Every structure is written in C-alpha cells, then in structure tokens.
C-alpha cells in the first residue's frame, strides 16, 4: 500500500523542465533496467522498461502518466536519442565498418590474411600462437574475430591435436578484449557514443569523447591482461585445471571427435566464404583496414587543427579539440569505398554481389544499434531525473572515491555474467557511472587533473568488467559463438575457460584496479600483474607434449 501510494502521488510535474527529484525514485529507471536484465537475461526489454518507467516518472506517477510515458518513450526520448547528430554519426560509422567487414570477408581478403599466418603452425605450440596472432589481426570486430579465427584455425589445431576447448579459449579471449582496446573497431563507435552522451550531461567537465576513450585504454586491465595471458599459455605450453585434462586427452586421441560439437552445428556459424575460383589476396583486407585507421587519425588531426587554431600547442591539444564523430564517419566511409573498389577492380564480385556482402555486414550491426539507442534514451532519462545528483547527495560523503573503479568493475562483471551481454552491461552502466563518478570526485575534492585516473579507471571498469563477466557467462553471445565456431562442446568451453578468466580477473582487480585508484601507476600495476600471472602459470601449469603425434 505504501508503494502504491508513492506511485500514485505525482513526484514530478507534468512539465519535464520541472523534474527536481525528491526521493530515491530517481534511481529506479537504471536500477529497474539492471534488475530486469538480470531476471529476463534480455537486454532490450530491460532497457526499454527502464526508459518507460523513467518517462512515467517525468509525467507524474498516475494512470494517465503511465500511458503517456509509454508514448513519450518513443516520441520523445528514443527519438531524441536517434535524432541527435552525434548519435547518428556513431550509427553510420558502425554500419559502414560492419559493411566493410562483410565485403572483405567475401572478397577473400580475410582468408588471405589467414593464409599468411597459418603457414607457420607446424606443431601444437605454434598452432596456438598462430591462432592467438590471428585473433590480434582480426581486431576490428569481435563477431568477425570469433567466426573467422575459429572456423579457419580448427583444421590446423585439429591436425596438431590441440583440444577444441583450447582453441575456443584462445578465440574467445582474443575477440572481445582486442575489440575493446583497439583504436578503430565496431566497439569503438558504441563506446564513444555512450561516453559522449554521458559527458554531454556534465557541463563542468571539458573533455572530448574519443580522447576520453583513449585515456581509458591503459586502465582496461582485464582485457589487456587477458590477451597477455593467452599468449603466455600458448608460448609456454602450460595449462591447469580442466584445460590441462582436455589437452592431455586431445594429444592421446587417434581421431578428432572427442568432446567436439557436431560439425553441422559448427558449419552454421561460418561466415560466407571467399568467392570460389578467385585469388585470396591479403591486401584486399589489409588495405581497407589501414585506410580506416589512417583516415580516422587524419580526420582527428584535421578537425582538431581547425577547431584549435592558433591555440594548439601540441598534438594533445589538437586531438582534444577534434571531432571524433566526424572522423570516424569519414574513416569508415573511405574504408568501405576502398574495399568495394578493390573488389570491383579485380573482378572478384559484381556490383550486386558487393552490395549484398556489404548489406550482410550492416545487418549484423542492427541489434547492437538498438541496444545503443535505448541506452542513449535511458541516459537522457537519468539526466532529466537527476539520478547522479541524488546518488551523490546520498553517497557523496560516505563512498570512498578510490573504491569506485573496483565497485564499478565488479558490478559490470556481474551484470554481463547474468545477462550474457557485455554491450548490454555497458549500455546500462556507462550513462550512470560517468556522471556519478565525476560528482563523487567533486564532492570529495578529487576533480583536479592529477585525479582524472579515477574517472578513467571507472569508465574502463565498466568496459573491462563487462568483458570479464562475458567470458565467464555460459549464456554470452561471444562465448556461444566461440564454442560453435571452434566446434567445441559449449559446456566444455565454459568449464575450461572459467579458471583462466577468474584468475586474470582477480589479479587485475586486486593488483591493478584497487592500487591504481589509490595512486599506484597503471604501468606498474600491469607489469606486476603480468609477472604474477606468469609466475602462477609456471607454478601450477603443466606442459603437454607439443608434438602432433
């Protein structure tokens, strides 16, 4: 009855301009999104209901406001999120780079890059290292990484009697982590979009979204250490836990059927292969990717130089003043045109086939863009309701600012684990974490340039924690795709990967996130963690014969 009374009482006026929060109700929209995501394990409905609840609050908690809030969710909040020019730029960038991936997967360029790498794999250790290296090379999209690397390297690792579980682990742990910190990926537009939206609600924080993202990379401890640990496991040939058992069994097998997924199921995950009868040229993938990176960097320098003018005193000032959204759009468009031109000039595909390949790549981005639009809308809702301000009023004097990064890291990991979506966890948490962290920092006198590492660590905590939870989750999309593309039993993949992911996650939290927030240099934290991980691997890991027979 008390709750019904509260909800029946208009807490905010009908005019959205008069929306001063008076209670904990301002926290409910993002909290509802998190709880529904955990319960339903579906991010899109969770985000939408969070937006709807927030719109209901803005209209006053009444039966009329409930239905008006439903309409406003679309006609105001989601529409405003999509119509924003910066947001539209992020969507266009994501679609263009997705289309580019579709073209270079079909024109044989991707397979050409693969062929350059796999020729070196003459034993089990080299096969694992080649797989990990290929995971770094296909850096621009986690789905493309998973499907290309898994399907391509499976015959190679099978011939060297590397377990499918080991292959799935390498694929999974070089997909999302690399896409998280690489400079130009399908993830970047999404992450920069979320960061930019959150920064727009903090008028006293003068920061550019892309530059802010670049500043978080050194603090993305889990993704960086996860990639490092993959290479250490591959190089040393040592394994522990269920993975060691799986590797021993694989070496002793006389066939390649044990613990594997049905080949027909694995085939369902394969990308469209190269056009038959056409040459497999690595340049058809390398050149568009190089053009993408160089165009984005050139765009950042050009727009930054124009914006900064004579006030620019160095590269940092230029990049800080740059228009990242415009630069990403330019780069993705030029890269897509380059990929199409290379394909057409070599008569690999007709124009119609190029368009079809492009569209298939674009189509793969639709789901992520829906999540992004809803996350933007929820971020706008929290700004109108003053969620961050209310949280600061409650926590600002009691929550130790240095503990924020690790708290955020654990919360993001838990959300991603329960929902199976790292993107969903990012979309829910970033719009809340950035304003909250900045407000708590200001309330505690930590808003100077020397304290910005706390904000960087908190943002990175969302990104890194989402990947950590995703790696441990049996319902994660990339975990499932890694199993299927590698032809590995899914439960076997989860069972063998979790000990490695837990080890790296705990070390990154205890040795990096907490000490760095209290002033320990990020590079020292990463170095110490790397040494510790190697020591643990050498101490508890056991070698498996790297010879194929």
Structure report:
This protein is 73% helix and 1% strand. The chain is mainly alpha-helical. It contains 27 helices and two strands. The protein has a two-stranded antiparallel ribbon. Helix 5 (85-106) runs parallel beside helix 18 (324-345). The chain has helices spanning 2-8, 28-40, 43-58, 63-83, 85-106, 109-118, 124-137, 142-159, 164-173, 176-181, 186-199, 209-216, 221-236, 242-252, 263-267, 283-308, 315-320, 324-345, 351-363, 366-385, 387-395, 404-419, 422-443, 452-472, 477-486, 490-517, 522-540, and strands spanning 238-239, 542-543.
Describe the largest sheet. Answer: 2 strands, antiparallel
Number of helices in the DSSP assignment: 27
The proportion of residues forming helix, as a percent range, comes to over 70%
Strand content: under 5%
Structural class: mainly alpha
Count the E strands.
2
Rounded to the nearest angstrom, the radius of gyration is: 24 Å
Name the average pLDDT.
Answer: 80
Biggest sheet strand order reads 1-2
State the low-pLDDT regions, or none: 1-22, 256-271
Quick tags:
single chain; 27 helices; mainly alpha; 73% helix; globular; 549 residues
Topology:
Elements: H1 2-8, H2 28-40, H3 43-58, H4 63-83, H5 85-106, H6 109-118, H7 124-137, H8 142-159, H9 164-173, H10 176-181, H11 186-199, H12 209-216, H13 221-236, E1 238-239, H14 242-252, H15 263-267, H16 283-308, H17 315-320, H18 324-345, H19 351-363, H20 366-385, H21 387-395, H22 404-419, H23 422-443, H24 452-472, H25 477-486, H26 490-517, H27 522-540, E2 542-543
Antiparallel strand pairs: 1-2
Helix pairs in contact: 2-3, 2-23, 3-4, 3-20, 4-20, 5-11, 5-18, 5-19, 5-20, 6-7, 6-8, 6-16, 7-8, 7-9, 7-13, 8-9, 8-25, 9-25, 9-26, 11-12, 11-20, 11-23, 12-24, 13-26, 13-27, 16-18, 20-23, 21-23, 22-23, 22-24, 22-26, 23-24, 24-26, 26-27
């Amino acid at each position: 009855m008390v709750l019904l009374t509260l909800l029946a009482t208009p807490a905010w006026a009908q005019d959205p301009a008069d929306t001063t929060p008076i209670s904990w109700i301002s926290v409910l929209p993002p909290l509802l999104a998190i709880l529904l995501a955990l319960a339903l394990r579906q991010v899109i409905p969770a985000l939408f209901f969070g937006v709807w609840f927030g719109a209901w609050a803005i209209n006053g908690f009444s039966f009329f406001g409930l239905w008006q809030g439903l309409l406003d969710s679309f006609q105001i909040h989601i529409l405003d999120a999509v119509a924003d020019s910066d947001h539209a730029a992020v969507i266009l960038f994501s679609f263009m780079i997705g289309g580019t991936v579709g073209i270079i997967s079909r024109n044989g360029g991707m397979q050409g890059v693969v062929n350059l790498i796999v020729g070196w794999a003459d034993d089990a250790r080299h096969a694992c290292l080649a797989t990990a290296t290929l995971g770094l090379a296909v850096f621009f999209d986690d789905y493309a990484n998973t499907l290309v690397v898994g399907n391509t390297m499976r015959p190679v690792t099978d011939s060297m009697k590397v377990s499918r579980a080991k292959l799935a682990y390498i694929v999974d742990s070089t997909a999302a982590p690399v896409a998280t910190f690489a400079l130009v990926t399908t993830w970047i537009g999404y992450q920069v979009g979320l960061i930019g939206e959150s920064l727009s609600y903090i008028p006293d924080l003068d920061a550019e979204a892309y530059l802010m993202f670049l500043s978080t990379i050194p603090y993305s401890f889990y993704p960086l250490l996860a990639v490092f640990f993959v290479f250490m496991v591959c190089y040393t040939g040592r394994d522990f836990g269920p993975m060691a058992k799986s590797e021993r069994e694989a070496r002793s097998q006389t066939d390649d059927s044990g613990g594997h997924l049905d080949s027909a199921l694995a085939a369902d995950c394969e990308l469209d292969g190269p056009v038959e009868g056409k040459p497999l040229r690595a340049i058809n993938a390398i050149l568009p990717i190089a053009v993408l990176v160089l165009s984005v960097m050139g765009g950042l320098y050009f727009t930054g130089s124009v914006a900064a003018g004579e006030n620019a005193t160095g590269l940092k000032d230029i990049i800080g003043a740059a228009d990242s959204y415009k630069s990403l759009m330019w780069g993705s468009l030029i890269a897509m045109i380059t990929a199409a031109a290379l394909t057409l000039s070599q008569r690999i595909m007709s124009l119609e086939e190029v368009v079809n390949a492009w569209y298939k790549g674009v189509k793969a981005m639709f789901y992520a863009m829906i999540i992004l639009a809803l996350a933007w809308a929820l971020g706008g809702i929290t700004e109108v309701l003053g969620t961050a301000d209310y949280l600061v009023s409650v926590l600002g004097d009691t929550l130790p600012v240095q503990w924020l990064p690790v708290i955020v890291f654990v919360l993001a990991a838990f959300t991603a684990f329960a929902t199976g979506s790292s993107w969903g966890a990012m979309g829910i948490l970033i719009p809340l974490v950035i304003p909250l962290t900045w407000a708590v920092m200001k309330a505690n006198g930590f808003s100077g340039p020397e304290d910005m590492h706390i904000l960087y660590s908190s943002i990175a905590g969302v990104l890194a924690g989402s990947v950590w939870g995703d790696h441990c989750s049996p319902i994660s999309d990339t975990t499932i795709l890694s199993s299927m593309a590698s032809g590995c039993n899914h439960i076997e993949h989860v069972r063998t990967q979790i000990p490695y992911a837990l080890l790296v996650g705990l070390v990154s939290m205890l040795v990096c996130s907490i000490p760095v927030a209290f002033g320990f240099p990020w590079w020292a934290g990463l170095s110490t963690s790397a040494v510790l991980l190697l020591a643990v691997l050498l101490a508890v890991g056991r070698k498996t014969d790297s010879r194929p027979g």
